[in-house]
Amino acid sequence: MDPAELKSVIKTGVKHGLHFERGEVHNGLWCCSVALEPTPADERLALAAICLTEPDAGRERRIHRALRREAFTTIVALTTGG
């Protein structure tokens, strides 16, 4: 993947709140992640789901909903100290 493609993929991930990896790093590996707000110690955290094959559309939607829900819960916990 060239730098322009990478920049485009990152922008799309930021826009939608989900970042995907579909075999670019490791052939056959599928990954969906959501970035979290930096912690007070400036750690960059993310929640991710990793599959050895790309999930079907229904399972992919379930993964997206679960990651967004967990990201919201985790961000709230990080910002409130809980």
**Class of secondary structure makeup:** alpha+beta
The largest pleated sheet is described as:
3 strands, antiparallel
Look at the structure and give the mean pLDDT: 80
Question: How far apart are the termini?
Answer: 39 Å
Principal-axis shape: globular
- The number of distinct helices, counting runs of at least 4 residues, comes to 2
Strand content: 15-25%
Would you count the extended β strands for me? 3
Computed CA radius of gyration, to the nearest angstrom: 14 Å
The secondary-structure element order is: HEEEH
- Helix share, percent: 40-55%
Low-confidence segments, ≥5 residues, pLDDT <50? Answer: none
Q: What spatial order of strands do you see in the largest sheet? A: 1-2-3
Describe the structure.
The chain is built from two helices and three strands. It has helices spanning 3-16, 57-80, and strands at 19-22, 30-35, 46-51. It starts with a helix and ends with a helix.
Task: Summarize this structure briefly.
The protein is of the alpha+beta class.
Structure keywords:
alpha+beta, three-stranded antiparallel sheet, 46% helix
